Records
---
Amino acid sequence: MSEELATTETEPAETDDRHTRVEFVHVQLGDTAYKFELGQIRQIVRNPSLTPVPRTASVIAGVTNLGSEIAVVIEGRSLFDMAPRPADQDAILLVFDRPNAKPTGLLVDAVPGIDPHHIDHIMPPTELDEWVPQVDKEWFKAVIDDSDQLDQPIGVLDCDSVIANVREQVSGDP
Amino acid sequence: MLNWSLIMTKFPRRLVPGIVRRSYPLKFGLVMVLISVIAAGGIYATGRFAYPAVAATLGGTLLTGFVGTVLSWRTAKAVETVAVTPDERTDEDTPRFDTARIDCVGRVASAMATTHETLHEEHEARLVAEEERSTLEETITEYQRSIHRCANGDLGERLEPRTDNDVLTEFATGCNDLLTDVEDLLRNVTQLVHNVDTPAEAEQAIGSETADDELSDSLRSLSNDVDAQILDLQTATNQVRQLVTVLEEVTASLDTLEQTSRQTVTLGETGRDAAMAAVDEMDTIETEAAETVEAIENLEEEVQQVDELIDFIAEIAEQTNMLALNAHIEASRAGKQGAGFAAVANEIKELAEHTKEAADDIEERLTRIQRQTDQSVEEVRETSNRIGTQTAAVETATDALDEIVNSAQETTVGVTELQETTQKQVTSMNDVLETVEAAIEIGESITDEVETVSATIESSTANDLRNTPEQFSRNDYAAQLRDQLTEFDIETDSPDTETESTEDEPTTSAEEQDAPTASDPTLKTPEPDGGRQTETIDGYEED
């Protein structure tokens, strides 16, 4: 009886929380933090077994077997012009959720967690002038300026923009 | 239990070759190779076999073993250099213990240098003392023979003073003075006996008109001479007594030296026993240290296994974290129905993170334990090496104490022989003293008799005097004295020398100077064939 009461009492708060908060996957590349919208990520794989693909650009780390399908793996450090990852450091693969598209993943250094942020702290990239990312703001879908949880604004990468830039680098790379 | 542990401790030594057991660096290197093989086999046994991991483990352990072997080889080489250095003494080279090291090896080298210097100085001092003792013994033996020859009558014998010893020089000078005095005394007594015992002189004295007066004067002079000789003998007696006193002091010093030598033997034996006990204790401690190192190494292996388990737990926590993230993603894809599942996934993620933090904390603590264990093993091994070095040093000290004990025992024997020799000399000097005292008594008897005869002569005629019993008594005394004097080999000088010797004697009055004395040529000048008087007393016996 008491459990039912508790559920009844907490249910409006949880509903309100779902409507006012958005969850993001927090990733780390070197010293820089990025976020992805949780709905754009389908799977997270730690230290995936990669098969290099000859005659491809350095931004393509290779392909990996996800069980029922083969996914293309993008090296995040190469994409953002960072130094190669040390051999003894773990690599985390984020598999993008892109329906009707070829499975694609991005290699990052770490995934500290999945963080919810209030919608009031989420804004378009162009609205926050003091935020200057390392890459063009077109790569980002939004920016989170949550001083309660973050030391500085963090950009929310758009997986479609990321893949489009990868295609540009692959096509421009001899 | 104890026997089982002893069997387990001793058993591997039977399997290890002697060349490995004698070389600690080789032993260390082989142990590290064995550990690397075991580590590689352990990784293979865990089922997560990977060539890089095995190669890295094997290579790292071999590299560590190589570095440790080189370091232990350098330390062992330095210690062996210090240990071999004392053997250079056998090649009559000066051993050098100086080293540039300032660690325990340098301190051991410094301590051994100090000990060696002390032992070397004691050895040199002992050699000098033995040489002096040998010289002293030879000199005293030579003096003893000379004194025996003097006691047997050869008064021409003299002791040769030794300039390197004040006591012996004083002893030889005193003996020579004494012998000179005794020889002069006996020469004078011989002259007196000859004067009294010559019938021709008596006949000449009796045939003259003033025979009684001259005989009385002659006897008075004889009495004075005998008194003077008694004084000389008493002086000689005092000198002999002083000499005996000196010898008794030497004997007392030798007693003290013998006691000191015996105490040295006792102390040396006590020190040697204590050093041997210390060596036994050090051996026991070294064995216990080896057992401690083995126990700590076993503990280190256990810690290593726990560390591997912690790594495994951390790996599981990381994978759990990934599963929780994926579960959260799947829950979000389920929409409202997956909210509860997302909460559970979050709880699992936090639990995995706590597990990983705990595993990291445990791993850090194990790393500290491993570091402290390695330090403890190193300290115990260093202590064991120090104990081994100190054991060798104490064994060397034990040998040195053994040599000291043997040398002290030889010194004791030498001092005892020297004591016996000195005691014989004291006995000989006492014999000489008794002889001189007997001569003094005889001289006093002669004086009494001469005074009696002189008084009798004054109251009777010369003819009566010649036939009186006193005359026979005087002749008897002279014969007795002459017999005693024949025991001495007195080198009588020429008549001129005798005259000079007699003239040196003090005269008490003008009457005695005018009166015919024992040195008067009319009384003492021998017959034409009396030139033989320059010979020994035996010559008078032949006359």
---
Amino acid sequence: MKMGAQVFQDLKVVEFAIAIAGPTTGKYFSDHGATVVHVESSTHPDILRLSPPYRKGVPRINASAYWTQYNTGKYDISLDLTHAEGREVARRLAGWCDVVIENFAPGVMERLGLAYPDLVKVNPSLVMVSISNLGQTGPYAKHRGLGQALHGLSGLAHLLGWPDREPDNPFAAVPDYLVPPFALAALVAALDFRRRTGKGQYIDISQFEVACSMLAPVLLDRIANGHEAVRMGNRDLSGAPHAVYPTLGNDRWCAIAVFTNEEWKSFCRETGKTHLISDPRFATLPARKAHEDDLDAIVSQWTIDRTGEEVMRTLQRAGVAAAVVNTPADLLSDPQLQHRQHFVMVDHPEIGPHRVGGQPSKLSATPAEVKRAPLLGEHNEVILKDFLHMEEEEYINLILSGVLK
Amino acid sequence: MELAKDTPDREAPLKPYRVLDLTDGYCLACGKILADLGAEVIKVEGPAGDRARQIPPFYGDKPHPEQSLLCFAFNQGKKGITLNLGHARGKTIFKSLVKLADIVVESYDPGYLDSLGLGYDALSTLNPRLILTSITAFGQSGPYRGFKQSDLVVTALSGFLFLCGDRDRPPVRISFPIAFYQACAEAAAGSLMALYHRNQTAQGQRVDVSAQEALALYTSNAPAFWELGKRLVTRSGRNRAEITSTVKSPQLWQCKDGGISFAIYGGQLGARVNTPLIAWMDSEGMADDWLKSVNWAELDMASLSEDFFNEVKKRMATFFLKHTKAELFQGAIEREIMLFPVNTLGDIVEDRQLRAREFWIEVEHPELGKTINYPGAFAKASLTPIIPGRRAPLLGEHNYSIYSLLGMSRQQVDDLRKEGIV
């Protein structure tokens, strides 16, 4: 479906960005029509290009679908920033664009002469965001770590897992996904300020701090009441049964969450356990919480001979919150996500047709258009000649001096 | 770089904009993000108050409609009015407010606003520049539209739940409602994209956010593994996801007084991290010749043997158990080892990085006779302050001032209160 105007159709963005948080911030812009240039090089490629899954399992620089899903619709330049001429081209890109997104380790952009004070000289109204684990300042700002490390630091590991076991580690780096919408909101707000005043600015985002903002209610409980929130498995203070139960099949599960007494009665009727309605062990929420182990055993007995789909349909029909625990495979065929066209098929020159995630907000008048991700250096010529108006001779010289590799 | 402090002469980035916030439950945070950026966010509740006011934990542990810490956290910086949208006069008043608003954010069940005659079509007729943002579990349409939802159910359908937890137990969620928080952040981003478009074209629009879809991003590359090679990625507990390596590689480790986060890598990264760690172990007599002889740069995690890896793990685990997480973290900072503590919430409050960056802000609660430290801004900007504002509004606290925008006198507002409209 070809749409009309796009939100960011006149906007130009340059990314010095790697892995997830930076490129995902840029993806909002590219999916909504901006011209986004992703800067990398074959000597310093975006690390997700070197991370699986690859087409046919063979590691190749252009074959990672991990990388393509966060870089849809972007232009790509292979520019060696260790080379003085490469850094000069990078500064010209900063002069050309409206927004710079960077998420290198703090200090790297400074060392390259590409920090905000350097770039603002060539573009006084530049809006720039730096995203990092810990922020640009502070006693251990420069202590390096992958996104996974933030789970420990930010309390997310502490809150994941079972009360009788040590903390668990979430599969993916949660703050890497949490931060992009905040970065986008801060950037668009700054762009609006620029529209009103002509002034650009610099934004410093610490992923640690964003994660702490999320946990504000439990941090306030710690600060004001002295209570340390704990991991509770799948239980919840306001519901019972409230857990994940086994269903038919190997490693297949469903989630059920009963909060009110009415929902409990509906659950009993729908599962043919009407005798439990009058059982005093389960009549009220405090009673159900007190006998939660018994309750979970009863629920498991009912779920274990059914598919997750059947559990979900049966209980949802009765007004009880229940769901299949979707596997990654289920996710791709989940009817609701299909309805929202969450996964979009793109045809990539090396990977071929494959599905990538779209945008979770659906804008009615200006929907996102998700296009395939670029090859490494695919747009060197377009970016340098068309965007930066470089002469043929200068372009050739850059190639010959090994800057575009 | 010197970043903006809260000085009154600096204009917040969203200062010109007004938001009507109809959200409830775990969907309050979208308005909070817009308020942090300087928008005037007006929380609109029924005369009896939001359901969120009943959600624990509470200040002082006592259930009280003005003391829910969820509301403290995510209604911060907003103004608050009461209005009965079920009442004809209440609807008329709401429509008048909509004419003065840029964004309406809501989290009712799909179709509820339409049933009140306050759906997008009605509101956009009154104010074509309006942006109506809806936050729900699954979106405004589709097969799950009428489903009962909860954080656990949304997390299950997002695919994220399946990927968390230990193999010998069911998948497990984070004991905090992250699904709707992520949806709130996406709703703030979506609202501002729509606002950006509106300011170029004078055209408002609808923004439809699904928490399931927002949280599906947390499945990272797991769907791509299925898409490209029909490989089903599953949960791996305290270990790293078993994607590039066949051995069980811990991400979380026990130490003397808690846990740390640290992973063993091979190749250049491994050499950079493991070499200083082993030198540190050696300085305490805890690295034997075998460990010191490993050539990390040439080690390929994809092909090394379980036995070899276990020998390395055993030595490192012993070293970690001899030290506290604070000692390990400090030593890791000095030696550039990628190691971090597993913080409790209490540890976070004490964290010196957050303190040095002046992350915490004091928020006055005159009714409690207290000043409470709150988590601060989600970003620091060089020119326009991003500063969370005053404490969450009391029920109907700003009725007089907001309704005066519509030309109502205090007497008129008092009369409406008697009729149960405000």
